[in-house]
Each structure stands twice: as C-alpha cells, then as structure tokens.
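Hey,
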Amino acid sequence: MTLAFDDILAAQARLQGHIERTPCRHSRTLSEITGAQVWVKFENLQFTAAYKERGALNKLLQLGENVRARGVIAASAGNHSQGLAYHAARLGIPVTIVMPKGTPFMKVQQTRAHGAEVLIDGDSYDEAAARARSVCDERELTFVHPFDDLDVMAGQGTVALELLEQAGPLDVLLVCVGGGGLVSGSAVAALGLQPGISVYGVEPAAGNDVQQSVARGEIVSIAVPETIADGAQTQAPGRLTFEVIRTCLRGVLTVSDAQLIDAMRFFATQMKLVVEPTGCLAAAAALNRVIELRGQRVGVIISGGNVDLARYGRWLAGGDTSKATA
C-alpha cells in the first residue's frame, strides 16, 4: 500500500474551508542569490504556524463516531501535537500528546492551550512514541502518527498542490524533511501534477537518516540528531514515507545548523517573518546554494514558525550556537 495522487486530491477537497490557503510569493532576493526564479510557500502562516495541521485534520475527519468519542493520541516534538490538538478540540475529540523531554517549552504550552492532555516522557521521539503506544493500548485510543500514515501524508501533500496552483509550473521543488510526511506527500502531489519536476528533500547535516537510507536502499536508523532543527530529530524515516521517498525524490540534501541560522536571519530581516529552524531547511539549501538552481523555476516550502523566542533572539544575534533544544 502506498500513497496515490488521488488520495491527495481527496484530502484537498476534504480540507477546503478548514485550513488556511497560505501565501505563495515570488522572492526577488532569493531569485537574485540563486540565479533562479524562486517562489516561497509560507506554511508558517497556518493558524498553528505549521503545515502539520493539514495531515492531522485529514486523519481526524475520516474517523468514525465511536473512535472519535474514545479519543486520539500522538507522540510529537511540537507541531503535529498542536495541529492535532487544535482540530481535535474543534471536532470535540479528546486528545493526548506524549512529548519528548527536550521539547521547547513554548510548544508544550501551546499544545496544552489547545486542550490536549500532555505527557512528557522519553529522551527522543522514538521513546515518546513507545510511551504513546502503551497509553494508546491502555485507554483504547487511536494513534495518529505524525508522518508514517497515508492519511497524514495525503494531507501534507496538499501543500505542494497549492504551491503549484499558485506559482505555476516548476523545475525544482525543495521540501523540508523530518520523518518524511511532508516530502513524500509533496512529491506525489507535484509529480501527479507535473511529471517532469525534480523534488529534493532537505534535512539537517547532523541528522541525515533519510539521505543515508536512500543511499543504502533501506531504512537506516541513527542516534538522536544533535541539531537545532528539533522537528527533524527523528532517527529514521517511516516505512510508508521511505517507500515514496526512494521512488519519487531526485535526491536528499543537507544543511548545517549555521546555515539554518542564516536562513532564519534572512527571513527575519528581509521578510519580517519568524521561521523555526526546521521550517528553514528547504530555504537554507537555496540560500546557501547547496544545489545548482540557476535558470530554473524553483518552489521552496517553509514548513513552520514555532520557536522559543528567547533562543530565537540569541540565534539571530549570533550568541547561541548550542544544539540543545530544551
């Protein structure tokens, strides 16, 4: 079983009127830097400041009444938890979130503000997910995976559908990569609309599990990545997401934490926008010319804008180069 283009079209119809159709703008500055024509899709302007609510809502809308009444559970470092909690509250569905110990406090606070029961457990996503699975069985809840779920992947793919509708035909699409939900959904959507497009994933250099997995032709698991991109601290791609990634992506690129900070500073100074480190992955690849884009039409997805403001200020000022995410 794998993700189909029709699944993403169905998700787009299902989500209409419930999700922001976020802006997509031509960036003159990025175009000048890269020698390309660059369009930027701003998913940091969703209500919960990240694309994650697309997949979460697409999943929730397909649950039966009895399942909704019992409630749902997820493990997440932040953005999936907020999107799931917000839309579950709108639909009257009880929600529990297990978050790793290193999750930024702002994301914990915002998730609770959306009405979720938040449990803090585990030093990594995998450990938090194990606790969530245990609680799921104990309470007979429904587990909503943050990326390795076809309904979630289909919802995330609606980002690329919108981008191509707004920007027109593209040669290259750059997409942030954590567990692979966004990049797999976006790749299927983009190739469904435009078979000749080249889709690249971008992940942290310190956490290149997807790049290693593609190179090996099988899922590779790594130690918990030491990177400021807390949304990309997964240790391996999902089984479903990897199946799409290995067949649909042209390649997987990496950027350093220093390049992510440069990208955050670029958005803050040039566009007056707050973008979190993980949300900057694709843009950092373009900004730092990790790949040759000259003469091409390029789409860049900005995936989120949830970041601890104190640390964000220190990053922009150049005073905090630590990789801790607490």
